[in-house]
Structures are given as structure tokens and as C-alpha cells.
Design a protein that fits this description.
Length: 78
């Protein structure tokens, strides 16, 4: 079972949402107006918080844990 240490931040949720939609790091960076380096930092934090080791598993966990409407609500609430 995955060990969830803490909840992702709003920015991490946005990255996770885009990751779940199949966006590349470059596409996520362009969409969020941040650098690819920042995207990678967010992904590293997401992996730790979700207790996963790679982007594929993170995307699958995102789809399982968070419905797209919940992610959108969390992102739009910021």
C-alpha cells in the first residue's frame, strides 16, 4: 500500500492534473508558465507525497485518488 505523507500543494495538483492528461514536462511548463526544472521539482515532491517512483504510477494514482472535477476544483480555488 502507498504511504501518503502529506497532501500535494495547489501547484502540485495542477501539475498532477496535467500529468494525468498526458502532458509532457515541456507542455506542463508552457501551460503553467514555469520552467521545466520547476515542473521536475514539483514531480519529485508529488512522487514522494504519493509514495510512487515514476510519472506513470503518479498519473494512475492521480486518476484513482482524485476525480478530474476534484482536481479542477482544487486548482480553481487558488
Amino acid at each position: 500500500m502507498r504511504k501518503k505523507q502529506e497532501n500535494p500543494t495547489e501547484k502540485e495538483l495542477e501539475v498532477l492534473s496535467l500529468l494525468g492528461l498526458g502532458f509532457s514536462n515541456k507542455e506542463i511548463a508552457e501551460n503553467m508558465c514555469i520552467t521545466e526544472h520547476t515542473v521536475k521539482a514539483h514531480l519529485t515532491n508529488i512522487y514522494k507525497k504519493l509514495g510512487v517512483k515514476n510519472r506513470t504510477t503518479a498519473a494512475l494514482v492521480a486518476r484513482d485518488i482524485y476525480s478530474s472535477s476534484r482536481l479542477k476544483t482544487a486548482i480553481n480555488a487558488s
